[in-house]
Amino acid sequence: MPCSPREIGALFLFEKLTPEQLGRLCAEGRVELFEPGPVYAEGDPATCFYVMIEGTVVLSRRVGGDDVEVNRTSQRGVYAGAMQAYLGDRVPQVYNNSMRVTEPTRFFVLPADTFASIMQEWFPMAVHLLEGLFFGSKNTQRAIGQRERLLALGSLSAGLTHELNNPAAAAVRATATLRERVAKMRHKLAVIAEGPFSRDVLAGLIDIQERTAERVAKAPVLSPLEAADREDAVTDWLEDHGIAEGWRIAPTFVQAGLDLDWLDQVAAAVDEEILPGAIGWLNYTVETELLMDEIEDSTTRISHLVDAAKQYSQLDRAPYRVVDVHELLDSTLLMLSGKIGPRIKVVKEYDRTLPTIPAYPAELNQVWTNLIDNAVSAINSAGGDGTLTVRTARDHDRLLVEFRDTGVGIPQEIRGRIFDPFFTTKPVGEGTGLGLDISWRIVVNKHRGSLEVESEPGDTRFHVLLPLTTADPDTPEEPT
Q: Of 36, 134, 155, 235, which one is least surrounded by beta carbons within 10 A?
């Protein structure tokens, strides 16, 4: 369609240009009429800069498998398209959104390379300012994003150190006590060996010791009331059979699963005069077995924590692979357990029938960390006692991960800004305002999913929706 310098000069973007500049725009650009339908698609090479002369445009962004409308306007002069062409090949020149028109719409269309050369020639100072703004913002986001990750790492390290310290200290204590008990066993064995016992009697004692150790491994878990009743009964039995300080031995025997029937078998297997020595020897045997169990439990706990740390960090794992989100959630919750603390109840409502999905697991762990950290802060702001519920479910062709907390909630007036870079409600020094921005970019840009929020006081829910499959698993889009 014919291009009129007078008409395009009336658009606010060009109203300060000279007649010569408007003439050049018309000579190198064009006016084009678009019928209702798409103009360009998100992700396609950005070849043109569009300025609307008249009509109605709709801009949308791809979220998961859907196109979500972000703007609709009929205002003359609005522009879209290759708006960063002046940066050249220093950034990927693709359309950052999709544009369509809902009625016949006229645009002034300028090729991207022409738009770039005109910007450089006519507005050199403005271009330098824009370049500085663009790359400065990118560098700032990258630097603060790195700080955000370091802060998270510090918090996680503190939590992991706390979690590792408990079983490690328990193992050290149990080892020291075990050394003492083994020494006493050697002494008791020497006393027994020096006594007037036949080989058959000693063999019987060894057999009782072995069978006692087997019972320790199969000891039932008793309620406090059941344990107290059994301790009273064992104490009475020991006193009736002349065992000194039976009340001190009884709790250990009960913990090991030894009952009156077993003690009767021991009494029947040895002579009455050696029964106290046999009971003392068995007590050391039981204590030794229980201490070894404690050491095994502690070292197993440490091993699980190390495995969780590896799962969380995804060290020695492929960056993009098929994962079980429940493993990622569990490792993150374990890593953050120190920060969550005992006053916050964690409830897991997992749908274990959900399939594995293709994803960047290390980055999803970062999303879980940010959302859990925000939930903990919200609960602490509400008094410190509350519930964090993590739920998974299937939502049509997507997998839902929901984080629900009973914290203070997000006020309606700021709900639309929480995903903006650098926006935070935390006190100065406690938050960068990039946690939710990073999470949004990881979920939406990198995984083609969606991140949504619903909130009212006492009930805030963040919904992460991830595709069950991917169209091109080899080249997922990096977050920008």
A: 36
Q: Which residue is associated with the tokens 């000194």?
A: 244
Q: What is the mean pLDDT of the chain?
A: 79
User: In the numeric block, which tokens belong to residue 100?
Assistant: 């369509």
**Three-class DSSP category at 218:** coil
Contact between residue 10 and residue 28 where contact means Cβ atoms under 8 Å apart: no
Q: Distance between CA 47 and CA 84 in Å, rounded?
A: 11
Better pLDDT: 370 or 145: 370
Distance between CA atoms of 90 and 207, rounded to whole angstroms?
A: 80
Rounded CA separation 134/239 (Å): 85
Residues in the chain: 480
| Half-sphere exposure for 289 (CA within 13 Å, toward CB) | 22
Which CA distances in Å does 320 have to 80, 230, 237, 363, 428? 33, 56, 64, 10, 35
| CB-based contact 426:377 (threshold 8 Å) | yes
Long-range pairs, 349-354, Cβ under 8 A, ≥24: 349/389, 349/390, 349/391, 349/392, 350/326, 350/390, 350/391, 350/392, 351/392, 351/393, 351/394, 352/326, 354/325, 354/326, 354/392, 354/393, 354/394, 354/399
Q: Which residues contact 321 (CB under 8 A, 6 or more apart)?
A: 358, 359, 361
Between vectors from CA 333 to CA 329 and to CA 334, what angle results, nearest 5°?
115
Q: What is the pLDDT of residue 476?
A: 41
3-state secondary structure 83-98: CCHHHHHHCCCECCCE
Backbone angles phi, psi at 341, to 5 degrees: 80, 170
Distances (CA, A) of 52 to 67, 101, 241, 268, 316: 22, 10, 102, 102, 51
Query: 98 φ, ψ to 5°?
Result: -110, 145
For residues 294 and 287, what is the distance between their CA atoms, to the nearest angstrom? 10
The phi and psi torsions of 251 (rounded to 5 degrees) equal -60, -35
What is the full DSSP assignment across 161-176? HHHHHHHHHHHHHHHH
pLDDT level of residue 104 (50, 70, 90 thresholds): very high
**Angle between helix 361-381 and helix 124-194 axes, rounded to 10 deg:** 90
Cα distance between the two ends of the chain:
37
| pLDDT score, position 40 | 92
Q: For residue 78, give the nearest of 12, 17, 32 by alpha carbon.
A: 12
